[in-house]
Each structure stands twice: as structure tokens, then as C-alpha cells.
Amino acid sequence: MTTEKRSAMRDHFSDFDLDSTEFNDDYDEVLAELLEKCPVAHSKVGRGYYVVNRQEDVRRVAQDWRTFTSVDGMFPNRPDGMPPVLPEEIDPPYHTNWRGALNKHFTVRKVAEWEDSVRKQVDALIDNFIETGECDFVKEFAALLPGRVFFVTLLQAPLEDLDRLVDVVDDAIMGSPEEQGPAWAALHTYIEGYLEERQQQPLRGDFIDSILEGVDTETGEPCSWDDKVNVVTLFLSGAVGTTASAIGSMVLHLASHPEDRDWLAANPDEHERAVEELLRLNSPVTGTSRTATKTIEVAGTQFQPGDRVVVNFAATCRDPEVYDEPLEFRPDRDQTRSAVFGLGPHRCVGSHAARLELKTSLEQILRRLPDIALKADATVTYSTGLLRIINELPVTFTPGAKVGDPR
């Protein structure tokens, strides 16, 4: 019955649209139907694009950067005025050079050094509302924590600057095409000013110094100043957007599944696996785009040079060929084939940081808000594009005491 209603409104096989109301409202059903019946969908939006859905095919596209290049952009229809998003929108060997410079700042061991700082930021945000017994967990926590961690840990920049940028990041990632270009340009302007200031300061041996040092391009020439700015801009938008989405989805699950919430509170050793499973269930990234460089067939669909191809990570994470009963929460699943942080050379460099923020948030929520629940009569709505984001998350809990100031 749901499928018939949806199909009457939009044929997601031949007229798919990442930004459509139909996809947003019937998200679970559309993903399931694509996986069952349509390994490659097509969109008529803009210049048009294809959508690859099943994990085997997504893995093939994402890992073959020579056949499916990233240089035309991560959005299937690139907004006007949007600067290049590096290193997401470059290929090896230039991409490899950047990853070599950045990876050392995001290893498991390096990220573990952030734990105390992250926990303080988590507690500070909870302190803001714990005495009230209710809050909008997206606006008062999920949308704020990743940016605070990025500013405190990596940029070491004033949090007041972040307050001015939260809405700009939202427009850059989830805004209309008319909003996205100016928003990306505004982020670029802020980061450029920050890097100019840092360039005048003594070396710290940190993430920003590695950016300022730069790398060689594919031609062997030093990278441009704009490329350095664009790399930091991507990290800021990724930190604020994707991790915020993941935190919101995690808390929604806790608040609407008290049996899972209570089980996790009683089994802290399962928190790491629970985070992986919650990420799989609700991938923050719906997909990202590639461009075919030659004629090639994938899952019965022939692509021509120049065809735009979206790899659907959200569907891939629910592929029933990989995950039995994919909509069930099962923390004991084998996650070795997880695609939630991407596949191939563009796999998320900040995955360990995201996991730390999610796990620390989970621990402190269960400790300080143990009976967190969805507010009675609450309606949870989403915005969907390249990301899947909860707009508002009204929750209630037994009021508690503050723990102090993180500074």
C-alpha cells in the first residue's frame, strides 16, 4: 500500500531525487525498494545522474577511482559558486599526497588523546539543559558538539567564531542550490582568515601546520593556497555536518527504544559495537558522486564517459545480501564490510574522531540522562540530501545536576 502511494507520486527507479520530499518522507521504504528491485536508479534532476545501490556495486565504483573520478564534485549537480572541496574532489596521486599529510593526525592513538577534552565538551553541553528535564537534543547538543571538538582540538580557535558558522555550515551541506554556493564561499573566507593568522605564529607541529606546509600536486608542483584553505573547509563542514547527523540518529534510537537504552546502560563493554551498528542503521551520509571516465557496465547499466554516478552508502549499509534483517539493531553483527565511512581512497579520514565523539556521548548520556525518552506526541522530521539530518529531537529526562565548566 505504501509502495503504491509512493510510486504514484514518483518513480524512484527512473526519476530518483536525493532532495525530493518523497525520498525524505519514505526514506526506509525507498531504500529497501531500491535494494530489492533496482541496483542502479536514474535521476532526471539537473544534468541527470545514476544511483548505484547494492554494496557489491558501490564497492566496485568507490574503489575504482580511475574509472569513476571524483574531480567533478561530490554533489551530483554542483551548486554555482561552490569552491573545490578538497581532498574529497581530487584523485590520486594528489589525493594520496594529502592523505599522507593528514592521516597521522587522525590515527586511533592520536585521537585517543582527545578523550578528556571531548568528555568535557559533552558534559558542558549536557550541563546547559540537564536541570530543565527536557531539551531539543539536536539543536542543544548534536548540532553543537562536533564543531566544538573541531574548534577546541584541531583549530584551537574561539568558540564564539563557531557560533557564527553553525548556520552557514548547515546551508553549505543541506541548503538549496542558491544557498549552498554562498555558504561554501563564506566558510572559505573564514578559514582563509584563520590560516593567514596561523601562518604568522610559531609552529606547533599540529594538523594546521601540516595544512600550511602543503603537499605536491599530481604534476609535482606545490599545491596552491586556495587548496590549503579548501582542505580545512571540508574538515569543518564534515565535522559539523556528518557527526552531528550521526549523534542525532543515535540519540533518537536511545530515546525511542528504551529496551536498547537500558541494555546499553547495563553493558558498557558493548558501546563500541553499538556505535558501529547505529551508524550502519542510520548512515549520516546518503551518498556522494563520481563521474564515469569511460564506457563501462555496472549491474546491467551501461555508463558513458561524463555520466554522473552517486554511490548510495545509506542503501549499501542496509543491503540484505550483507546484513540479515538490516533494519534490526544487532550490535553483535560483523561490521568488517561496513561502508558507513565510505570505501576506497576517499574513506573518511576522521572516522576515529567521529567514533570517539559518538562513544563518549553515548557514555555520558546513559550516565547522566539514563531515562531519556522521546517527548510525548513529538514528531521527528528529517532533511535529506547528501546527508540525512534530524531537524528537531524533543526529549525528556529526569533533571540532574551540572558537573562543571570544561574550561
TrEMBL record:
<dbReference type="Pfam" id="PF00067">
    <property type="entry name" value="p450"/>
</dbReference>
<keyword id="KW-0349">Heme</keyword>
<dbReference type="GO" id="GO:0004497">
    <property type="term" value="F:monooxygenase activity"/>
</dbReference>
<comment type="similarity">
    <text>Belongs to the cytochrome P450 family.</text>
</comment>
<dbReference type="InterPro" id="IPR001128">
    <property type="entry name" value="Cyt_P450"/>
</dbReference>
<dbReference type="GO" id="GO:0020037">
    <property type="term" value="F:heme binding"/>
</dbReference>
<dbReference type="InterPro" id="IPR036396">
    <property type="entry name" value="Cyt_P450_sf"/>
</dbReference>
<keyword id="KW-0479">Metal-binding</keyword>
<dbReference type="InterPro" id="IPR017972">
    <property type="entry name" value="Cyt_P450_CS"/>
</dbReference>
<dbReference type="GO" id="GO:0016705">
    <property type="term" value="F:oxidoreductase activity, acting on paired donors, with incorporation or reduction of molecular oxygen"/>
</dbReference>
<protein>
    <submittedName>
        <fullName>Cytochrome P450</fullName>
    </submittedName>
</protein>
<keyword id="KW-0560">Oxidoreductase</keyword>
<keyword id="KW-0408">Iron</keyword>
<keyword id="KW-0503">Monooxygenase</keyword>
<dbReference type="InterPro" id="IPR002397">
    <property type="entry name" value="Cyt_P450_B"/>
</dbReference>
<dbReference type="GO" id="GO:0005506">
    <property type="term" value="F:iron ion binding"/>
</dbReference>
